[in-house]
Amino acid sequence: MKTQAESNGIVTLTGEGEKLVKDSPLYNEGLRPTTRAEHSWTAYNFASLWVGMSICLPTYAMAAGLISLGMNWWQAIITIILGNVIVLIPILLNSHAGTKFGIPYPVFARLWFGSKGAHIPAVARGLIGAGWFGINCWFGGAAIDTLLMSMTGWEHVPGHLWIAFFAFWLLNAWIAYRGPETIKKMEAWAAPILIIMSLALLVWALTKAGGWGPMLSAPSKFTSSGEFLKVFFPALTGAIAFWATMALNIPDFCRYAKSQKAQIIGQSSSLPTTMGGFSFIGVAVASATVVIYGEAIWDPAAVLAKFSPFAIFLGTIGIILATLTTNVAANIVAPARAVENLAPRKLTYEHGAIIASVVSLLMQPWYILENFGNYIFLWLGTYGALLGPIDGIAIADYWLVRKRRIHLTELYKTKGIYSYKTGYNTRALWAMAIGIVIPFVCKYVPALSIIWDNAWTVGLLISLAIYTWMMRNDSTIMSVKDYEKVTARGGESKAS
User: Fold this and answer.
1) DSSP bridge partners of 257
2) Residue pair 431/459 in contact by the 8 Å Cβ criterion
3) How far apart are CA 388 and CA 90, in angstroms?
4) Which of 41, 233, 355, 409 could disulfide-link to 453, CB 3.0 to 4.6 Å?
């Protein structure tokens, strides 16, 4: 029975399939497959999305953290670029499903974890997104607090830091509440502004420091390759984990892609380049402050506080814009969708955005950011170890097990083929558990600590291999013949 149609590599529901899905208790407007008309995001939209998300205070802080751990400027930048090139691979692989079938991440997760089991990877990704939301609000609030103190007598206001934090948190929550289309519009015009402001900061540093030499002359603190590698591998895992969250829920955005080519070009051209470029600006500016002020100032707000009042005002707008574009895109969509997926007929994206914003406060971002060790090793390293196996299962299921063939309407049935026997795919649960446990055990065995240092990569490969093997004869795998029964290749969808 034909319930979906494919045209130019994008699958949409036919009239019959659309009716079946709309009657499902697992359906709502936020979780349904996108129509052909909604596939409107171009390569520029995806490039601006990543520019807006990458130019943020946590990126600046990650580069600063690597320098503080002993790396010189080029070691830190290479580590960050390499990490982003690696994480780009699962991002593009998982983007394909979102683009082709127009489904958000929680629905994609039903494919490999089951209709009920999908809550596990969706909530796991959602909690980490909420944590990042709080971290970005704390970064932004602290920056605004610093800048206000430099312009007024703000420091005399009792609890001024907390006031700035909560005010900025409310602004982020309000914009996130307005939904993904607002994010698309904001990123489109914010991206070029952020690039210009970042380059202006670099030009200032270069001019004031008297050239590249004095800025980037600080040597590495490592005396041997062994010392360097002890920091490099966990730092690389941290750099990968920085966007390992988006590697999972990228279908939330790619479901709007105009074509596979648009999302591939847009993402590949912007993620590694922007992360590497903005990290370099952070390192260069901080190095310049040693020459200019006699000390390394890693906080961009503290640097801006030394400028004229007009420059401080512009800088404050830039920091607000940089934090907003990252937070509302990268850190609220996934948790909002995860909440929505818990009860699709009762909860909406707006409900999810509010709940996720509140949960972000419970994650205590001020503790995570107490020192760079907490930030890079505790936060980035630990959640990277948790998400790597889920990434591995997602890639294995779509590319190796099902070979990109999905029956869309079955994803919206409580007792469909993707519900398995109990609503949970136990093979996915086992693959995830093994992929998580092995690196965690190695963390406490000194001779095997390198496995923990590369926990995201190791966990991904372990779970990918185990899941592929366990699913080799699964009855839910569609053959080419079965796929063609429900899909008219080259036809146009009535839903478009």
Assistant:
1) 41
2) no
3) 10
4) 233
Token digits of residue 152: 């007024």
Q: How many angstroms separate the Cα of 11 from the Cα of each of 113, 266, 316, 496?
A: 22, 21, 44, 10
How far is it, in rounded angstroms, from Cα 7 to Cα 90? Answer: 25
CA angle 137, 64, 208 (to 5 degrees): 105
Nearest to 465 by CA among 385, 393, 403: 393
Q: Are 279 and 80 in contact (CB under 8 A)?
A: yes
Cβ atoms of 374 and 141 within 8 Å: the answer is no
- Tokens 């107490």 belong to residue: 370
- As a whole number of angstroms, the distance between CA 228 and CA 375 comes to 19
DSSP three-state, residue 32: coil
Helices 57-68 & 260-293 angle (0-180, nearest 10): 60
Please write the tens of the pLDDT for every residue from 447-489: 998 898 888 999 999 999 999 999 999 989 998 888 988 886 6
- Token output for 27: 């359906």
Contact between 65 and 372 under an 8 Å Cβ cutoff? The reply is yes
Strand partners, 13: 4
Rounded Cα–Cα distance for residues 54 and 275 (Å): 6
- This prediction has a pTM of 0.88
The whole-number pLDDT of residue 495 equals 36
Name the β-bridge partners of 12. 5
